[in-house]
Design brief:
Arc Repressor Mutant, subunit A; 5-stranded mixed β-sheet; 3-stranded antiparallel β-sheet; elongated
């Protein structure tokens, strides 16, 4: 095994295509294929599964990739510390539900550790995709919530994907509304108060089960329902249509502006918000630092 072989595996995993990876590595395609095959033979594993659609990581390949990334990252740090060599492009990816504190922590991490070259991904995405991203090592960390309704299904899905959930904080249910909403003057909002207004929620794609919903009370009947894919659209509709969404109540005015406010919702429920990591792989230093900023951001905004 060589460092070059590990870099080859990482690059092929990132591109999902041998031809594209060979171009990026300035290698002939047969040489790249041979190097990876030699690595697989050395350890008696299959890292990539090849098909007419391209290549994808096997289960054991996903685990191997996690270790390969750690070895490369540690080698870069040693070279920087003792040889004065510049570190290559920093790479890091987070997958999360739509939480401003997750973005705030991401911004802090980037400012501190991005360096002169970086490729950072902040994926605000569907709940099942968060789990799959971390399980397949497309993202180093995922952020989502549990409550009494979804916990059994979410925890089962995490176990099946060898992922562990670590709580950050528990929030009482709130609603996000526009500052000029007719409900804005209320100290506490009831379910009855919400009935005349449109409810907004995030699209969950092919896994649009209530258990994977990003919003609390997703099974509650609602006459006016709007489903969106991104935070900006949701916030615009909260303001423009006097809509609402049920949430944790954690919001950053610095990131999201002054026009959205959070009001307590009078229901007996909770959101235990936390992060997920692979159980079999030690977190990278970048992941550890992100979790540290994440914890600080949660404490600052609760």
């Amino acid at each position: 095994m060589t460092l070059k072989q590990l870099q080859y595996v990482v690059t092929v995993a990132e591109t999902g295509n041998i031809t594209e990876a060979a171009k990026r590595l300035f290698l002939a395609q047969p040489s790249l294929t041979s190097a990876i095959r030699d690595l697989e033979n050395e350890f008696g594993i299959t890292i990539f599964r090849r098909s007419n659609k391209g290549i994808e990581l096997t289960t054991e390949g996903e685990e191997f990739l996690g270790y390969a990334r750690q070895v490369i990252e540690q080698t870069d740090l040693i070279a920087e510390r003792y040889a004065g060599a510049p570190v290559g492009k920093q790479r890091f990816c987070v997958s999360a539900q739509h939480y401003s504190f997750a973005v705030e922590a991401f911004v802090r991490l980037l400012r501190e550790f991005g360096g002169d070259q970086y490729e950072f991904h902040m994926r605000e995405t569907q709940t099942y995709d968060i789990i799959e991203d971390v399980a397949k090592l497309r993202s180093e960390v995922g952020i989502l919530y549990l409550n009494r309704y979804n916990e059994t299904v979410i925890r089962k899905t995490l176990r099946e994907n060898s992922l562990a959930f670590t709580p950050l904080f528990t929030a009482k249910p709130h609603v996000f509304i526009g500052r000029e909403s007719p409900l804005a003057s209320k100290k506490v909002i009831t379910i009855e108060d919400l009935k005349p207004y449109p409810r907004l929620s995030y699209e969950q794609g092919s896994h649009n089960s209530f258990y994977f919903s990003e919003e609390l009370l997703s099974t509650m009947d609602c006459d006016k329902e709007i489903v969106v894919c991104d935070r900006a659209t949701l916030f615009n509709m909260l303001v423009g249509l006097n809509g609402y969404t049920v949430c944790s109540g954690v919001i950053s005015e610095e990131l999201n502006g002054p026009n959205i406010i959070a009001k307590p919702l009078d229901v007996d429920d909770y959101m235990e918000i936390g992060y997920i990591l692979p159980t079999a792989i030690r977190p990278s230093p970048m992941t550890v630092n992100y979790v540290r900023y994440l914890t600080a951001a949660c404490g600052a905004e609760k």
